[in-house]
Amino acid sequence: MSGVIKNPRNGCALHGALQTVQEIRGVVPIIHANAGCGVINYLSALSTGEGRGLTGGYNAPGTTVQERHVIFGGASRLREQIKNTIKIVNGDLYVILNSCESAMVGDDVEAMTREIVEQGEPVVNTLVAGFNGGAHYGYEHVLADILRSVYEVKKNERKTDETLVNIFGIIPWKDPFWKGNLDEISKILKAVGLRSNVFFGDNGGVEDLIKAQNAKLSIVFGRWGELPASVLETKFGIPKLLFPTLPADYKDEKELIEKISELVSVNKEKAEQFLAKEKKYEENYRARILTDLLDYDIGKDAAIVGDEETVIRVAKLLKSTFGTEIRSVVLTDVLKHDEDHLADYTDDIEGIVSKVYISSDQKEIEEILKASKTEFIIGSSFEKAFAEKRGNAALDISFPIYDRTILNKTTIGTVGEIGLIEDIVYAVKKYEWNRKNNLVAYIRNY
Amino acid sequence: MGKKIGKHIAIYGKGGIGKSTTTSNISAALAEAGYKVVQIGCDPKSDSTNTLRGNNYLPTVLDSLREGNKIHLDDISVKGFGGVLCIESGGPVPGVGCAGRGINAAVNVLQELRLFEEFKPDYVLYDVLGDVVCGGFAVPIRDGITDRAYVVSSSDFMALYAANNLFKAINKYAPTGGAKLGGVIANSMKPGYHREIVDDFVTKTGTSIAGYVNRSLDVQQSELYGKTVIEAKPDSAQADIYRNLAKYIAENENLVVPNPLGAAELRDWARSWGDRIYDIENGVVGVAEAI
């Protein structure tokens, strides 16, 4: 079947892998693909405020494969590029990202990598051909492949750290709030005496990849991230804990801490104190929106578009806070039948939502939203624009978000929960306010 | 593409079945009859035109493309026996790169060099690796490059399997302007049941025989001297076989879209012949009785 897919938002596996490694401090990507693959990734990221950095933007090293490399093989071009990159760009780990072209031509990238590793350089490779999957697939596979190989190419010593926990499933860029969400998870774990291995952003880096073998536990939020956690489980016996979503509220935080404490020793006293504080925090702010709730009939019904993790988390929150009827949801990440993951969160969605759709086609998504006959749409900037055109209230929390800068805002834990409630109330009040003003203006002009 | 200059004919066949030998002898026979002929080898082995040019070295199109310098027609072509213009597309070393894309790129280079406008051939023969393993090897029969294809096959089942694959490719591309089939060149024919097998295959697939080429020591001997039979043994019966074949191909306008056999159908058909051959070879029945 062929047809036009409008605005497929997430990019391909290579893009997902590139975004992932670009946010690990010390990692230098080497893209073995035509020039367009890297450039498109940068240009699309640019408008969401991402994509910069030492090896970001146009600075991402790559082989810029041309026709002659397809015909005669691109391995020697790759060898040249690895050597030049190591000479010019300082890095702690070089990750070769193999594209569709490399896969189809059958370049022996493994041999190239071995050759450079034998010369003492820290290089690993991963096959993230776009025809294998989307950006979420790329995130998982590049992490898994790095964790499979990094201990052979970097000096390391394994020593289990009883308080260290690996965090998987928060995908840089694909979760627009990834930085704030990583910080928030770290905050929650720190409060009960644990330390997080987050890999990405200011608090992450290549050292986190090395330290990952020392962790006592890996936590995977959502479907994506199970693969790297499984690599650590097989290689080092580190157990993994799977959650359908990041913690949406106090209740989820409590459950998270309880489940962790079954596998890792947590400071019980600290945990109780922390949870009591979180409970109070949530109750306090929830009480403060009661007036708005009554005045505005907020969140009567809604439709949500985004990644599976976000959709389940936000749907749950809407239901528990406002009693919202979730008319329909569209998942934009799990696009095909998934047999690669143990995790199956179908029941979690179907328990909350009347209709679940899967699509990355903006045209189809808009038709679904139209048919849902809801007044409130939560999604990306695409859905926000569509909602505003139709005169619906809207909130953008899914990728891509074009019209605001997100630095360290979080949407998880009690802080993120209250922030989200604030945003939801704001979106509805703004919509009502504009409607009222338009009416007043109309009467005055009449 | 503009108006085609000359008749463009693709000749396919399983590796080692004798398609380069056959193509070169057809080229030589056409040249001998006074036509201007181009033969383009579309096989990474790049030995299609060896017997037309006395085994002399000829840089391939892709060798020149790899160098990255500007390519001139003179660098990649040489005139062989009877003025046949010999060209080899070439390809990557075995096990590396993508030969299919290479064929595609080589044909593009020849078009960019305005080969046909410059040389003004009467006939252009493309000698193509015949398993049609990927889209690249189907280039000569699609995109309007040739309008007719022939397949060289012996009575060997693997050769007929390759022919059937070519039929599938023709079947796919013909409706959108690709080449049609001119016929099957039955090669390495020996006395006995060999002709009948190929005859049965063409009947089953709705195609026809372009000519029968007997297995002959003249061919092997000529090749050892780096020559076609037409050049080395012009008075032999074998040379006449090639002349007749060349005449047929030059004049034949009966082009068809074949009906390739399905996988199970082909297997059953091969099995039924296998049983009959077994009986013949073991003397259970005579040849006439078996076929």
Write the layout of secondary structure elements.
The complex is a heterodimer of chains A (446) and B (291).
Chain A: H1 13-22, E1 27-32, H2 35-46, H3 67-72, H4 75-88, E2 93-98, H5 100-105, H6 109-118, E3 123-127, H7 135-153, E4 164-168, H8 178-191, E5 195-197, H9 206-211, E6 217-221, H10 226-236, E7 240-243, H11 250-263, H12 268-288, H13 290-296, E8 301-306, H14 308-322, E9 325-331, H15 346-350, E10 353-358, H16 362-372, E11 376-379, H17 381-390, E12 393-396, H18 413-445
Parallel strand pairs in A: 1-2, 2-3, 4-5, 4-6, 6-7, 8-9, 8-11, 9-10, 11-12
Chain B: E1 7-13, H1 19-32, E2 37-42, H2 61-67, H3 73-76, E3 77-79, E4 85-88, H4 99-112, H5 115-119, E5 123-128, E6 148-153, H6 157-173, E7 180-189, H7 194-205, E8 209-214, H8 217-224, H9 229-232, H10 237-251, H11 263-281, H12 287-290
Parallel strand pairs in B: 1-5, 1-6, 2-4, 2-5, 6-7, 7-8
Antiparallel strand pairs in B: 3-4
